């Protein structure tokens, strides 16, 4: 069973899309790390909101941060929110074996040196992988955020998304800076 949007889906989708567009075009000062990670946190939430998993998600949608990261102070903005009737649960994970219990995994720069191995181990699992590291998309990350000029953009590795049996919303794909197939 797939995750379905409610009856008010067009309205909800329009609001989420508007928020994502506004965030993409919001200027920020790179020296202000607070703003960068706050915006990236909103992107992460929207990535999950615009993804469809092939299997039914039972109770919670689990977002895992694998390794040390700079998002901790900003996660309260999305903690306790819902995505398509599922409570969003955020976990910090340091044991690779715990990733199997996640729906979305943000792989921190702490583990970037072993990214290829991580991607190979998660291959063919319905887990959306995210990062914010240069070159991560070429290594197999599904969605990678980056700073371009004075805004945050993201790239999509559609081949890896499909390989995992996931679907990204068309609106999300249209907003991507680059889509690799």
Describe the structure.
This protein has six helices and ten strands; from the N terminus they run ααβββββαβαββαβαβ. The protein has helices spanning 9-24, 33-49, 115-122, 136-139, 158-163, 170-175, and strands at 51-52, 60-66, 82-83, 86-93, 104-107, 128-131, 143-148, 151-157, 167-168, 178-180. Strands 3-4-2-5-6-7-8-10 form an eight-stranded mixed β-sheet. A two-stranded antiparallel ribbon has the order 1-9. Helix 3 links the parallel strand 5 and strand 6. Helix 1 (9-24) runs antiparallel to helix 2 (33-49). The longest helix is centred in the N-terminal third of the chain and has 17 residues, at 33-49. Residues 1-9 and 25-31 have low confidence and may be disordered.
In short:
The protein is an alpha/beta fold. It has helices spanning 9-24, 33-49, 115-122, 136-139, 158-163, 170-175; strands at 51-52, 60-66, 82-83, 86-93, 104-107, 128-131, 143-148, 151-157, 167-168, 178-180.
Helix tally equals: 6
Summarize the main sheet.
8 strands, mixed
- Number of extended strands: 10
Order of helices and strands: HHEEEEEHEHEEHEHE
Overall shape: globular
* Contiguous uncertain segments of 5+ residues: 1-9, 25-31
SS-based class = alpha/beta
Q: Which radius of gyration do the C-alpha atoms yield? A: 15 Å
Proportion of beta-strand residues: 15-25%
- The share of residues in helices is 25-40%
Question: Roughly how many Å apart are the termini?
Answer: 26 Å
């Amino acid at each position: 069973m797939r995750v379905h949007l409610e009856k008010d889906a067009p309205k909800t989708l329009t609001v989420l899309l508007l928020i994502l567009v506004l965030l993409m075009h919001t200027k920020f000062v790179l020296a202000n790390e607070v703003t960068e990670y706050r915006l990236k946190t909103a992107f992460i939430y929207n990535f999950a909101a615009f993804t469809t998993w092939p299997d039914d998600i039972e109770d919670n949608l689990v977002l895992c941060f694998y390794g040390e990261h700079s998002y901790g102070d900003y996660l309260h903005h999305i903690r306790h929110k819902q995505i398509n009737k599922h409570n969003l649960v955020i976990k910090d994970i340091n044991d690779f074996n715990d990733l199997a219990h996640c729906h979305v995994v943000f792989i921190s720069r702490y583990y970037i040196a072993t990214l290829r191995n991580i991607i190979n181990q998660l291959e063919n699992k319905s887990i959306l992988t995210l990062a914010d590291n240069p070159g991560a998309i070429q290594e197999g990350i599904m969605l990678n955020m980056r700073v371009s000029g004075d805004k945050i953009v993201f790239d999509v590795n559609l081949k890896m998304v499909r390989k995992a049996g996931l679907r990204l919303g068309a609106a999300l794909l249209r907003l991507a800076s680059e889509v690799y197939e």
